[in-house]
Amino acid sequence: MAEHGALATLKDLAEKEVEDAARLLGEMRRGCQQAEEQLKMLIDYQNEYRNNLNSDMSAGMTSNRWINYQQFIQTLEKAITQHRQQLNQWTQKVDIALKQLARKETTFARPGRHCRNGNPRRHCLQKTASIRKRWMSFAQRAAMRKPE
């Protein structure tokens, strides 16, 4: 009976690790999504600003105003470059979190655990795939939740 208790404890710990990894993946995806939205807003603002510049140029403008436009556009380009770098970092974090979740989930749902009962190998693989899908679905739902 003590062996069963120890196995149950190990199973609970493994499930908690998988849940934690899924939660982390959700947080990373949320961060990545926010970075994408911020980058898109900056690019949209840059396009709008360039359109304003074009219309002001066709109407005529002073050299000081032209210099201000140029400086502001350069500042926007730097901000866009920085946000692209941030987005790349978030994408890497998502990839790492996804791999961690897959590793934890695979450890938790090894096919051998399901096959000890004499189940055919195909059934074992289907069961493992089903568990993986369930955890990936959990991670996606966690990513959709608003942070508290």
TrEMBL record:
Q: Which UniProt keywords apply?
A: Bacterial flagellum biogenesis, Bacterial flagellum protein export, Cell membrane, Cell projection, Chemotaxis, Cilium, Coiled coil, Flagellum, Membrane, Protein transport, Transport
Instruction: Offer one example of a GO biological process linked to this entry.
Output: bacterial-type flagellum organization
The organism's place on the tree of life at top rank: Bacteria
Q: Does the keyword Cell division apply?
A: no
In the UniProt record, the signal sequence range is: none
Q: Where in the cell is it found?
A: Cell membrane
The protein's predominant localisation is membrane
Which InterPro entries does its entry note? Flag_assembly_chemotaxis_eff, Flag_FliJ_proteobac, Flagell_FliJ, FliJ
GO MF term set: cytoskeletal motor activity
**Is Amino-acid biosynthesis set as a keyword in this record?**
no
Q: Which residues form a coiled coil?
A: 18-100
Q: Where are the bilayer-spanning segments?
A: none
One GO cellular component this record assigns the protein to is: plasma membrane
**Bilayer topology annotation:** Peripheral membrane protein
Among PANTHER family, the record links this protein to: FLAGELLAR FLIJ PROTEIN
User: In which family does this protein belong, per the annotation?
Assistant: Belongs to the FliJ family.
NCBIfam families recorded = flagell_FliJ
Instruction: State what protein this is by name.
Output: Flagellar FliJ protein
User: From which source organism is this entry?
Assistant: Escherichia coli
Q: Taxonomy-wise, where does this protein's organism fall, top ranks first?
A: Bacteria, Pseudomonadati, Pseudomonadota, Gammaproteobacteria, Enterobacterales
User: Gene behind this chain?
Assistant: fliJ
